[in-house]
Amino acid sequence: MHARLTALSLTLALAGCASTGENMLAADAPRALPDAGPVAVSWADPATFTELRRSLNRYDSQRGSWLTDLAKHMRKRAEAQLPAGERLQLTIVDVDRAGDYEPWRSLNQQDVRIIRDIYPPRMTVQYKRFDANGQLVAEGERKITDPAFLVNAAPFNDTDPLRYEKRMIDSWLRRELRDPVANR
User: How many helices (H) and strands (E) would you count in the chain?
Assistant: First the structure.
């Protein structure tokens, strides 16, 4: 049973490594989502992100659209929870995705993201929240993480390679957007 779960975990992790060929460090790579609606999402230079700086497979970490996908998810969830008329500016300052590469396992697994509890998802986000009159009601920086991401894991049929990060973002937004005064 354990061997089957390990094989399934490796398969899901490998699926999460699939890349569209995009390189988020390219000079022409976007640094923000296009303006649309009350939530603006931008991000710092991905080269400074823990995900790339400390990755044991930096090449694979910088490929694909995972950063843009996280930003789109963040905007969609924030828009759904933000009261009418309010605006929110989010800046992703750092990302360290769940799991990591363990090239010492074997040569044929050096490109496989291993998901273990010692590699929880982490993110640093700066935000500014404005009321319907355009007045700043809350701002700050939050370091969010989900150290119990495997305990809270969805069933194995969830194949989204960003499921742990998205669940962490959802949890943070629910807490943060409840009451701007209480969160100061």
Answer: 5, 6
Domain of 160, in residue numbers: 2-176
Total structural domains in the chain?
1
- Note the pTM of the prediction, 2 decimals: 0.80
- The closest alpha carbon to 123, from 69, 33, 50, belongs to 50
Q: Is residue 182 part of a domain?
A: no
Contact criterion met (CB below 8 Å) for 154 and 163? yes
CA separation (Å) from 173 to 64, 167, 184? Answer: 25, 10, 14
The pair of three-digit structure tokens given for residue 9, joined into one six-digit string: 């975990």
| Domain contains 118 | yes
| 76/25 Cα distance (integer angstroms) | 24
Residue 170 belongs to a domain: yes
User: Judging by beta carbons within 10 Å of its beta carbon (0-12, 13-18, 19+), is residue 8 exposed, middle or buried?
Assistant: exposed
Query: d(Cα 54, Cα 21) in Å, to the nearest integer?
Result: 21
Q: What per-residue confidence (pLDDT) applies to 6?
A: 42
Check pLDDT > 70 for residue 102. Answer: yes
